[in-house]
Structures are given as C-alpha cells and as structure tokens.
Amino acid sequence: MGKIDKKAFPVLNMHCAACANNVERTVKKLPGVSEALVNLATNTLSVTYESEQLNPQEMREAVVAAGYDLIIEEAHKQERQEEEQQKSYRNLKRKVIGAWIFVVPMLLLSMVFMHLPFANEAMLVLTLPVLLLFGKSFYVNAWTQLQLGRSNMDTLVALSTSIAFLFSVFNTFFPQFWYSRGLEPHVYYEAATVIIAFVLTGKLMEERAKGNTSTAIRKLMGLQPKTARVLRDGVETDILIELLQVNEQVIVRPGEQIPVDGTLVNGTSYIDESMISGEPIPVEKKSGDRVLAGTINQKGSFVINATKVGNETVLARIISMVQEAQGSKAPVQRIVDKVTSIFVPTVLIISVLTFILWLLIAGPDYFSHAILSAVSVLVIACPCALGLATPTALMVGIGKAADYHILIKDALALEQMRKVNVVVLDKTGTLTEGHPTVSTMLWERTEDEHYKNVLLAAELKSEHPLAEAIVTILQKEEILPVALDSFNSITGKGIKVFYEGQTYWAGSHKLLKDFCAGISDVMAGMLAQYQSAGNSIVYFGRENELLAVIPITDQIKSTSAEAIKELKRQDIEICMLTGDGERTASAVAKQLGIDRFVADALPDDKDLFVHELQLQGKTVAMVGDGINDSQALARADVSIAMGKGTDIAMDVAMVTLMTSDLLLLPKALVLSKQTVRLIHQNLFWAFIYNLIGIPIAAGLLFPLNGVLLNPMLASAAMAFSSVSVVLNSLSLGRRKL
Questions:
Q1: Residue 653: which of 639, 638, 665 has the closest Cα?
Q2: Cross-strand partners of 408
Q3: SS3 call for 501
Q4: How distant, in Å, are the alpha carbons of 14, 94, 720 from that of 43?
Q5: What is the CA radius of gyration of the chain?
Q6: Does residue 540 surpass a pLDDT of 50?
Q7: Is the N or the C terminus of the chain less surrounded, counting Cβ atoms within 10 Å?
C-alpha cells in the first residue's frame, strides 16, 4: 500500500443534497480512494486516498466532468473558496432581481389582463428571458446529469418548468386542439417563471444563511497573519507567510500577531494567547520560550526562530480540525444520504404516476389538472432540506464549540457526548492547576552532600509533571546534577537510576513498597498531615532505605468544584482517578464533593476502571492530560483532553478543552445535547415536509374540498423549506450553554 493522504477540497457549483451525493460517488469510484465525504453545508470534499495512484488534478478532472469543480491549490484555498462563493452569491443576486423584473408584469398579465389581445404571446415573450437567461443553469446542469445517468434538484426544476412552458406554447399556437374537445386551452407561463424566480430566491436566502454558519472558521482564519518580517543577511524583509521557511529569524514588534510557531531567540514580552488557549491573562515570554502563530505580542519587540510554518502551526491545525469536524458525518447522516440518493428518481416516478392517475380516475377533461399536479410534485419535493438538516446543525454546533475553545474532532464525538452518564477525571492538571510546587523536603536521615545531586539528575530525565517541581526547587538551590550510570522509568510508579554502584529511586508509595523501604513513626506523622492537606508525595530512596519524603502541592482550580456541581446537576456520575495515595486522594475528593475515587492508580488500573464502568452499561467520558492517561482515554466512549493548545492533546483526544477552565466540560456536554436535538428537529421537519407536501401537490385534497396546489405556491414552499432548516440551525448559536 502506498502513502495515504487525507485532504479537504472546497467544491464549487453544488446546489443540493443530490449534488453532494453525485460528487461523493464520482470521487469514490476513482482508483486509490478509500473514503470520500461531501458536506453540503461547507461545500467541502474530504477524501482519503493513495497519493501514488491518484493526484488532486485527476480528482478535479473527474469532478469537473460530473458538472462541478474543485479548488485543489493549497495556498489560500479557503480565501479562494470565499471569493468564489461571494462571486456566486452576487451572480445569484443579479439573477433573482432580473427574474422578478420579468415575473411581476407576467403575473399582472396572467391574473389581471389575461383577456387582452395577444396576452398569451406577450407572456411567452416575458417567459423566454427568465428560462433561457436567468434559469439557464438549471437546464445546463440537468442535461449534464442526464448524460451521466444521474439526477439532482436541477432535474426537477428543469423538468417541471419545461413541461409547464411547452404545454403553454402548444396551447398558445394550437388552441383549437382543446376547443374542438370542449376544453379551455390554459397557459401556465406564470407558473414556469415563478418557479424559477422562487427557486432562485430560495437559493439566495439559503446561501446567505449558510454563510452565517461558517463564522467560527472565518474568525480563526482571521488570526492568521498574511505576511511576516524576516531577518535575512542582516536585512529586514516583509514576505508572504507561505514563503516563510523553518529556522528563519522572524521579527515581531509590539501589537503585531505572531506569524509562526517558534522559539524566542532574544527579547522579552507579554503575549496574549487567549485566542488559542482561552487564558485571559497575558503570558510572559523570554528567551527559549515557545510562542504560537496567531497570538498577539503586547509589549516588547523580539526575534523568534521559526519551528513550524504554514499548515504545521498549532493555529493551522486547530482550523483544520474544526473544518474536518464540520465536514464529518454523524451516523444519522448515513441514513439521510441513502434517502437523498434515491430521492429525485422517486419523485420523478411519483410525478409520472400522478399524471397517469389523474387521467385514469378523472378522465381527459382534467388534463390541465393532471399537468399542474405533476408539475407541483416535481417542484415541491426538496432534497435540499434533507441534505442540509444534519450538516448545518453540525457546522453551527462545532463552530460554537470552537468559539468556547472546545475542539471537537468529529461528528461522532459530538453525538457520543450527549449519551455520557459517567465522567472520570484525572487529578493532576485536570482538577488541579497542573503547576505543582515542592512544599518542603523531609529528610529521613542526615542529608549526604550528593543526594540532591543524584535526585536532580534523575528528575531531569523524568517526564512526570511532579518531576518539574523538584527540578525547579533544586535548581534554585544551585544544585548541580551528577552523571548517572543508567536511568529507568517505571510506568505508573516512578524512576530508578544507578550511580556509583548503588540504586536510587524516586516515585510513589508503590515504589516505596517495591523496595521494601520503611518509614519512621515521626516521618509517618508528618506525612499524614501533608496528605490530609491534599499534597502529592514523592519518596526518594537508596536501595531499601528511604532518604527523603517530598510533599508537593498542586492547587485545585478555582472552577473545579463549580464544574463538578454543574455535572451533578446534569445527573452525571463523577469519579476521580489518581496515582496519589489514599489519604491525599480522599482529601482532594472531599474538598471537591467527589464521592467515588481510586487512589494509587497505575495506567492499567485506570484502563480497567473505565472498562468496568462500560460493562455496567455506562457511557464513559475520560478527562485527562492526553499522555499519562492514554490507555484510559483510548478505552473511554468519549476521550477529553485538557489541552492548552498542545499538539499531543489534539492528537489523542476526541475532544480538547483548550483552556484550563473545567467549566467547559459541562458546557460541551450541553452543547452536544442541543446540537443532536437540533439535528433530529431538522430531519423531522424535512421528512414531514416532503411526506405531507408531495401528496398534497399530487392532488390528494382535490376530491375532498376541491383544493389543488398551484405550482407557484409549491415552488415557494420548496424554497422556504431549505431556508427554514438553515435558520433553525443558526438558532443554536443564540442558545445559552
């Protein structure tokens, strides 16, 4: 198997759900394509393919042959899509205005001045520009789809208006055909033109409403600077951002947005990172610190060394994640896709059956009624309402989540969250600030001069969050590390090192037991006090001898208790998992009002705990830092990482809370429920609209009360159905979390 690429391409010229299905089927048939998903709301194709078998240009050629187009250029593709959509919107607006200029006098002629001489001929003249100029795209697209053996909404519009127009032309020039049979030769020019005008108007309103669903992406893209000031051969030069290379020196002045991810080479400043991390307080940056693209330099001027550029920056990855999530399909959408794929052919069959049944039941005298009913069936049927029901709701929901600094990886994650009834929380960095500090060092025996040197050398090699706290305090004492003989990390317990022929270790209570090291009564008493205050404990020893006990405090976040209360109000069970000892875990749990916790938990223990909850029929969300809790996160039904903008967190979790505020967790769960409820509402009304509208258009009510749906009203109803679905989705943006 060759290299697998996954890319998203903007799609042009799509008009309805059937169009999306046509593009999807076209791409799926290409060699090397393993998955292709088209989102009508975002007009985006997400495709996974083998780059050795297929390239984007070949993909575009296949899509163009199917009557659509792709934007395959990587540079500024979103901007180009915006430009194309704006151009299409302006063109559509001109068509709408032009169509109504001809339709209004047409309506006056057909309803008020129908008995004037040559009224029919005048209406024919007014009809031609509407059909051939403003409605031309419907016929061109319908013909293209017919050649491919496919159909879409354009097929319905082109067929219905053609039938009405040709029937009217026949009656205009050959009225005697009907007079000789005792029938009135009615013309329906106004129906053909009004259908075109209403459908165009509906599409215009739909496009405008759809544009409002992508505000989140536009906000994120607005954070990306267009140029960067680089230092080349001692000369400052402004270049386009896409020309910037890794390891180039980039100058950032006060008030400017940082163009790339990088490391400060010189200078200091305060950086506003709220647009990425959600943290409102500016962060001080000095030489060696990491800075992110899109954040704002507040004070000093500095130079950074570019480490990630273009699509590799954290901001670009966030934008990509939100776009992919908005373009993904919820499980319910798979059912809708199957319905829309057969929708247009089914409507065509119903229309033909309507015409035949009218003639069989009512007789030739009702030929005009049969024509009108068949046309009304073609016009009122709306695959767009079905096609837009799910993706527009997802777009708004996932976009709103991004506004709250909640990154949702895909539609499945959003749908799964609403089912969560148990939330399992890691302690360090999730419930606590994640900035541990050493309270003190309690030495079990007289401190040897090199013990701290060994401890510093060992902790410098450790990746555990508590290690950083120990390193910080020892470096403040100007302790220097020794050269260790070897280093071993013991998963979930701590570390073990060799120095001058002896084994030193540092870690949890379980590691203390593994080395059979004892604790004096005096030390045990002091230890109990620190544990009762919620301190984490690191034990440091040599062989089977305990050398020191290091209490480390990590402040509980100010929002943790409130977040847990809010989750409980949602009838969600809360559990806490921690590698700390029983007494420390109990103190933290009591302070936060958590009834169930597991102390001394290894990664395997966390994984097993989540699995046991699932065996009880629970839907479990695991919240952790994305690294130490990877097993449990992978096991959970919904994995949630406390990210603060880190790359790893975005990779491992289905949902990333970009800020340290745990209150985002209950908001994410509420948003999930609101979005899924909205999807179901949209689908219900879209299905009901078609289930009720098509039989009425076919003339079901005529035998009961003589009501026959006019094609003009049918076209207005069709236009309104799509717009109403989009507007209903937009209402989610105004709801409180």
A1: 639
A2: 655
A3: coil
A4: 7, 22, 20
A5: 34
A6: yes
A7: N
